Amino acid sequence: MNLPQPTAPEPTGAPRPIVVYATMFGATELVAEQVAAALGRELGVEVPCRDLAWLEPSALAGFDLIVLGCPTWNIGQLPSHLEARLPELAALDLAGTRLALFGTGDAVGYPDTYLDALDIVAEALLPTGAEPIGRWPTAGYAFLASRAQRGDEFLGLGVDEDNEPERTAERVAAWAAKVAAEYRARAARAALQPA
């Protein structure tokens, strides 16, 4: 099925963000829509939100901020359609692009693999030249282990719609503000670099 693909806005100095996601049962899609809306408010631009299952990876070219969300399925796995798409995403040249990750998971049912998919995605996409932003504190989360944990932070925002849906809106808003601030700071630094 050929669906219309998002087109990055022309470079004007304004942010060019996109939120993309993989979902299995709809939770990650709902969170992605919240992230796109919150990030749009923070950056003052409209942020497209697209399902990776229907997106050509080449459509990501021209966006300077890619926010990618995915669930951790079963015992620390990617959803099958993201696993199949990951090599295509990993083949992109994302030099100069900021990459922020968020994940959904079940910290009660799978406390020893919470948000593991974030690490799988990060390992695949960081060699593309993307610049990671948006790490998130582990404080306030109850889990045993996570491949996405680095010290006292996750590689991105963690959301547990199964057990803590009441915390999602607050976490998304705070994380979107953090991502926007880091995006602006790195964009300003990049603008000072000689061409």
Mean pLDDT: 89
Work out the radius of gyration.
16 Å
State the end-to-end CA separation: 41 Å
Oligomer: single chain
Total of domains: 1
Classify the fold: give the CATH topology: Rossmann fold
What's the shape? globular
The helix content, as a percent range, equals 25-40%
Which residue ranges are poorly predicted, with pLDDT under 50 across at least 5 consecutive positions? none
Main sheet overview:
6 strands, parallel
CATH class: Alpha Beta
Order of helices and strands: EHEEHEHEEEEEH
* Structural category: alpha/beta
CATH architecture: 3-Layer(aba) Sandwich
CATH superfamily: Flavodoxin domain
Instruction: Quote the beta fraction.
Output: 15-25%
Q: How many beta strands in the DSSP annotation? A: 9
Per DSSP, the total helix count is 4
